[in-house]
Write a structure and sequence with these properties.
GO molecular function, one term: ligase activity
Transmembrane segments: 149-169, 215-248, 278-297, 303-323, 335-354, 360-381, 406-426, 454-471, 478-497, 579-596, 608-629, 641-658
Distance between the termini: 34 Å
Membrane topology: Multi-pass membrane protein
Subcellular location: Membrane
Number of helices: 22
Keywords: Ligase, Membrane, Transmembrane, Transmembrane helix
Number of strands: 9
Largest sheet: 5 strands, antiparallel
Length: 678
């Protein structure tokens, strides 16, 4: 990066920081008032208080502090929009400091006192009146919290400003990585040649399956799945991994395929082997290690090399800070092992399939269809070991339906894959074959009952359809789809499709009726975000470090010991807040650099007329789909989702430099109805 680019990035960072600092002050102030509660233990017998009764309060105060910030108190206190309660234990005083944040200053002191009384009421009820409390210090004069929010917003603005400046420089004068973008071709001919290549690979795959070697491979795969389903033993999949590892030293595609199958198909991603010291390696991690050895000497510097290196550095810093900050080593190790699947898995897939992108797309599409078909069959046949993360009920509003809610490791991959199938980078003829591949994925997505993944996927599919078919073509297709959808929803709501169809119809209609916005799941995620934001106000630069609690809580009743238990919540659904908490602003910047490189690759592929523009755009939209889903899903610690991200990044990096063979150009009739080709 030259001096002018450095100046642009620095200027953008300073401007973003100034704007961020100004927004909280111009958008209205946030005020805080606090009250103090003193708790005492209640004793049924009229005897002097014993030491054990007195200790009960001090032992339970940390749990009561979390109860004070829970939804139970928020509901009874009738908090309005923008209001939140936090609580802090006053060490050695058997007291809690209750703080109420609100955008409204008027009467805040009285409302803080009322909130403290609500906390007393809830705690007393949960403790079966074995404790009592009194507000010893009522709500004080409201304090303006806008300064803390201004610092937080200034840091966020600085990161976003720096990334924007970096993007501008990357679009105007990219670095050496742009030399990897294939140029001098035609988007139209490239799209046609790519679809023809994928079609050729599908036919070649079908022909290979019917050979002795192909039947052997299929038989080994069946042995791995059926063996695990029947016994639950790690042996069958591990044996197949060893076979793939042996073959990988002649052809690394075998171990890359094994890595994808173990990480994103029907197997649990944490098939653990023998404990080694403080950690227990999994079959997936062994595949990762063998894959790295197999591709280590292969050339393969990609457009994502340096962004991924910076991301790994952020992970290392966050892990070290979390360890020194009191994070559990086992949790740190597990989280880091999961996150490293992205850079390391990317290296394996990218190098193993260098120059063979159509083959990779064909294998992934067919393999995903088979995996989802197996998952659907497992649900029908009740093969519990293959129903990874299955739930037996679906809660929509106040209604609970006893139906199977499928998850499975293959599910995160279907977002990017469906976008790729719609984009025109996949052969559309014969249509039955396209439907045969897409329908298992569509059925699997529907039976996941996951609205937070449906919405981004549907929006991006419509965007791709507009680019491919034009506005008129999309309107016709949307009208037809709306009519069929309305008919299907009507039949399902009436019970014609059974309990599953009825539950699915209720799930879909809840999005349009607004019922989804008042459900407990959304309110629960809002409380997670509030807890994380309150923590980031205290640690805005470095965060908390990996595996350090951020303030979220889980409240449950322990029947054995007859008490309410409050534990630190180990997860948070908003992954951008998790990145900030774990890796600080450096982590946000590292992830942002990766996104900037994706956007730059799309723009330069378009400008240079790269033959692989269609799969580049489709892969970038697939990554955008997962990025949007990461606002509502725990993708940063979900191994299948991380494997899907690594695979999609590899597809994009390979597509940037993809060139068709000369004989493929012009094999299919010219068509203007392909995404981004006109």
């Amino acid at each position: 990066m030259n001096r002018l680019a450095v100046l642009i990035v620095l200027a953008s960072m300073v401007f973003g920081a100034l704007v961020g600092f100004a927004v909280p002050t111009t958008g209205g102030s946030v005020y805080r008032s606090g009250a103090t509660i003193v708790f005492t233990a209640a004793q049924v017998e009229p005897d002097p208080a014993t030491a054990s009764v007195a200790r009960h309060v001090s032992q339970r105060l940390p749990s009561w502090a979390k109860i004070a910030a829970s939804g139970a108190v928020a509901g009874e206190a009738r908090l309005t929009a923008g209001e939140a309660i936090t609580a802090h234990e006053i060490s050695g005083a058997q007291s809690l400091r209750i703080e109420l944040d609100s955008p409204n200053r008027d009467g805040l002191a009285d409302r803080a006192t009322a909130a403290a009384n609500t906390v007393i009421s809830v705690v007393t009820r949960l403790e079966f009146n074995r404790v009592s409390g009194v507000v010893s210090d009522p709500g004080g004069e409201p304090e303006n919290m806008s300064r803390a929010w201004a610092i937080w917003a200034a840091l966020l603005g600085a990161v976003l400003g720096a990334l924007l400046g970096w993007l501008v420089c990357s679009l105007r004068r990219p670095g050496r990585w742009v030399a990897q973008v294939a140029d001098g071709g035609s988007r139209i001919e490239g799209a046609e040649a790519f679809a023809a290549s994928v079609d050729h690979e599908i036919l070649a795959l079908w022909a290979a399956v019917r050979t002795r070697r192909g039947l052997l491979v299929v038989g080994l795969g069946f042995f791995a799945v059926a063996g695990y389903a029947a016994t639950g033993s790690v042996g069958p999949p591990f044996l197949i991994l060893l076979v793939a590892g042996y073959a990988a030293f002649r052809d690394p595609r075998w171990i890359a395929g094994a890595f994808l199958i173990l990480g994103a198909s029907v197997f649990p991603p944490k098939l653990e082997l023998v404990k080694v010291g403080p950690v227990t390696p999994t079959v997936l991690e062994v595949a990762l290690l063998i894959g790295l050895i197999a591709v280590w000497r292969k050339p393969g510097k990609s457009i994502f090399t340096w962004p991924l290196v910076i991301f790994v550095a952020a992970v290392a810093v966050g892990s070290a800070y979390g360890f020194t900050g009191g994070g559990e080593f086992s949790e740190i190790a597990d989280s880091v092992r999961a996150i490293l699947l992205v850079p390391l898995g990317f290296v394996i897939v990218y190098r193993a399939f260098a120059g063979k992108l159509p083959q990779l797309v064909a294998l992934v599409a067919v393999g995903a269809a088979v995996a989802s078909a197996v998952e659907l069959l497992a649900a029908v046949m009740d093969w519990q070991r293959l129903l990874v993360d299955e739930r037996t009920s679906v809660i929509t509003g106040d209604d609970t339906s006893e139906v199977s809610r499928l998850a499975a490791p293959i599910l995160p991959l279907w977002g990017p894959l469906l976008i790729l199938l719609v984009s025109g980078a996949f052969p559309a003829r014969p249509r039955w074959r396209l439907l045969l591949i897409a329908l298992p994925g569509l059925a699997h997505e529907a039976l996941s009952f996951n609205r937070s993944t449906w919405a981004p996927l549907l929006g991006l599919v419509v965007l791709v359809a507009v680019a491919r078919f034009g506005s008129r073509g999309v309107v016709k297709r949307l009208l037809a789809a709306a009519a069929l959808g309305a008919l299907a929803l009507g039949l399902a709501s009436g019970g014609a499709l059974g309990k599953t169809g009825e539950a699915l119809a209720g799930r879909v209609t809840s999005v349009f009726s607004g019922e989804a916005l008042v459900e407990d799941s959304l309110a629960d995620r809002v409380r997670e975000n509030n807890a994380a934001l309150n923590t980031l106000l205290v640690h805005p630069i470095v965060g908390t470090g990996v595996a350090v609690p951020y303030g979220g809580e889980i409240i449950w009743y322990d029947e054995l010991h007859d008490r309410t238990v409050v534990e630190a919540r180990p997860w948070i659904h908003n992954q951008y807040l998790r990145i900030w908490l774990w890796f600080g602003v450096f982590g946000l910047f590292a992830v942002g650099l990766l996104m900037v490189r994706v956007a730059s690759a799309v723009v330069h592929s378009w400008r240079l007329g790269a033959p692989g523009t269609v799969p580049v755009v489709a892969s970038a939209l697939g990554l955008a789909c997962m990025a949007l889903q990461s606002i509502f899903q725990t993708t940063l610690i979900d191994r299948p989702a991380l494997v899907a991200i690594a695979l999609t990044l590899a597809v994009l990096a390979l597509a940037v430099g993809w060139r068709p063979r000369f004989e493929q150009v012009g094999q299919t009739p010219s068509s203007a109805r392909r995404i981004m080709t006109r």
